[in-house]
Amino acid sequence: MSEMLLQPGLVILAYLLGSISSAIIVCKLMGLGDPREAGSGNPGATNVLRIGGEKGKLAAAITLIGDMLKGVVPVWVAYALGFEPMWIVLVGFAAFIGHLYPLFFQFKGGKGVATMLGVLLALNFWAGLATAATWLFVAKVLKISSLSALIATFLAPMYVYFLTGEISWVLVTALMTAILFWRHRGNIQRLMSGEESLIKTK
Q: Concatenated DSSP letters for 157-175?
């Protein structure tokens, strides 16, 4: 009976952890205002970098790490508790949903790229690394953050399939990808019209 309660209990805790918005908290602590009311309005690392000025790089780095850890930590806990693969990936999915629709911030969250990457790194390090490497490569070549994220996450279910063979993980990864594409629908429209902004480099 305790095991039956433990598994859904951790799923709920993972959602609550995901609901803690790294971007909003970091920006408030560093005096940068609310990222939902500046720049693109998205509470994520890219927008924190955009609005952060001199503090932008540090604030964005802390935000990125925080968002990734929201995916990593609950999945690691599920592993440590000996959960079955289906429950492990459901815990990660709950953290991902928490980031997108946070209970503590009026259900207005980020787009989920960093938290999804954290989940993948915790599920299988090599699948997560392949996804991250794809993002970095595309970003380096094309210099468009949203397109890099879309291509990397589109390939993520394939990486998970070939590196783990765990069908439940592949299906949930594909579901996260579909949701992430929906969250990026505005970016996709701008990409199609050639209006999406480039990554600024110095």
A: HHHHHHHH--HHHHHHHHH
Q: Give the mean pLDDT of 16-34.
A: 88
Instruction: Tell me what pLDDT residue 145 has.
Output: 81
| Average of per-residue pLDDT across 3-29 | 90
DSSP string computed for 41-105: S--SHHHHHHH-GGGHHHHHHHHHHHHHHHHHHHHHHHHHTT--HHHHHHHHHHHHHHHHS-GGG
Residue 112 maps to a domain: yes
User: pLDDT-based confidence at 41, cuts 50/70/90?
Assistant: confident
Task: Give residue for tokens 């953290």.
Answer: 95
Tracing tokens 């579909």 back to the chain, one arrives at: 178
**What is the token pair recorded at 38?**
């500046």
C-alpha distances in Å from residue 135, one per residue of 7, 86, 202 = 32, 26, 19
Structure tokens at 89: 């990936």
**Residue linked to tokens 């928490």:** 98
CB 21 within 8 A of CB 104: yes
pLDDT in tens, 93-144: 999 999 999 998 888 888 899 999 999 999 999 999 999 999 999 988 888 8
Number of structural domains in the chain = 1
Domain that holds residue 115: 2-193
In a domain, 35, yes or no: yes
In-domain check, residue 152: yes
Does residue 19 lie within any of the structural domains?
yes
Tokens 């999406």 identify what position?
196
